[in-house]
Design a protein that fits this description.
The two termini are about 20 Å apart. A hairpin with a 2-residue loop joins strand 10 and strand 11. It is elongated and about 80 Å long. It is about 20% helix and about 35% strand. The protein is α+β, with helices and mostly antiparallel strands. The chain has two domains: about 50 residues, no CATH class; about 130 residues, no CATH class. Strands 1-2-4-5-10-11-12-13 form an eight-stranded antiparallel β-barrel. Strands 3-8-9 form a three-stranded antiparallel beta sheet, with no helix packed on it. The longest helix has 23 residues.
């Protein structure tokens, strides 16, 4: 019984630790006075305590008259190095699409660039703490707002954990119900 308990703990620990090493999906939201935005981001790779680049994502902005009823897409930074600054197609923004998902999920001063309804939309940090701004490249802006970045667990990890637990339960039940005449 002690070996079984240790095996279960070892497998559970391995599955929980491996979650940080996989591709990661995030939901985000921005809330300011008169404007809000929400969307999804996908960032491949291992993050640990280091930043990583978002490669795909979407955004829906409410409150910007230029972006009514549209969904924008992330304009991915072509540099594989997190934090590498790039210039938006219009030249209006600097961006890097870098996520800092570990201790205090956030983005940096260059921020995330989205293309939406022919406009560029940039959400970025403008100081310490939860001080963020959102702009489109026509100059429509809202000052302070809050930004949240939330990890979305992958369904595959949950199913693998459930499958492993069922397999271990089956092995345990087979071992307990095995007739005694099979012992050699």
């Amino acid at each position: 019984m002690k070996k079984f308990s240790l095996a279960v703990l070892a497998i559970a620990a391995a599955l929980l630790m491996s979650e940080a090493a996989s591709a990661q999906n995030y939901d985000f939201s921005f809330n300011g006075i008169g404007i809000s935005a929400s969307g999804t981001l996908y960032a491949p790779g291992t993050f640990g305590v280091t930043p990583g680049n978002a490669t795909t994502g979407s955004i829906v902005v409410t409150g910007d008259p230029n972006l009514i009823g549209t969904t924008g897409t992330l304009f991915a930074n072509s540099s594989p190095i997190p934090g590498s600054q790039a210039t938006s197609p219009s030249g209006f923004f600097f961006y890097d699409d870098t996520l800092y998902p570990v201790l205090n999920p956030s983005i940096d001063n260059n921020g995330l660039l989205f293309l939406d309804n022919g406009y560029e939309v940039n959400i970025y940090s403008n100081g310490a703490g939860n001080f963020y701004q959102i702009y489109d490249n026509t100059g429509f802006t809202v000052g302070n707002g809050s930004f949240t970045l939330t990890y979305v667990p992958e369904g595959g990890s949950f199913y693998m954990l459930a499958l492993c637990a069922l397999g271990l339960a089956g092995v345990f039940l087979f071992k307990v119900r095995r007739p005694r005449f099979f012992n050699y």
